[in-house]
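Might you be able to review the protein record set out just below?
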Amino acid sequence: HTWNSSVSQVGPYIAVITNRTTNVVIRGTMLFSVGVFLALVLNLLQVQRNVTLFPPDVLSSVFSSAWWVPPCCGSASALIGLLYPCIDHCLGEPHKLKREWSSVMRCVAVFVGINHASAKVDFANNVQLSLTLAALSIGLWWTFDRSRSGFGLGVGIALLATLVTQLLVYNGVFQYTSPDFLYIRSWLPCIFFAGVITIGNIGRQLALYECKVVQEKIHQD
């Protein structure tokens, strides 16, 4: 009843739009905004601890971040968040876990916590840190996702993002302090994997909400 009443309250300002393309644009814009926000907050954590070093001229900008970081992360978030529901639909693999916004918010909190650990917690060595973050990231997937498509996409996109980061560092766009794996930190793929799972969960929840709102509108008509 609580879910239905919340849909009824919020429904009128979204449910008037039933055009699929427009709904995708709305979801993409929301995901882009989430990606930009997370990029600013998480990059601030990394820069404060001198994990990442940007050239001095870019640090005067907002949140000590290079201007291109938030838009790139926002675009990637929109793409990933829209891709996850599509893959689920194509594979016919519905999400088995209970889907609620509270669960999505917990997933975001755990993701931010993993980032916080990578920047603030001191480990004996990088191998110990990388193994800990890998375990936390897989735990995040097991707790909030558990789908094969989610795991596969997470690993694939994390590897691609790691490769892009290596190219950026190699070309001097920014650098990591104490790199221990091909110009970067060895735990970076774990962070990317956890981020992909988190954004995928948000994308799935937005798609589910859109579906419920449209069904509600059809039922009312």
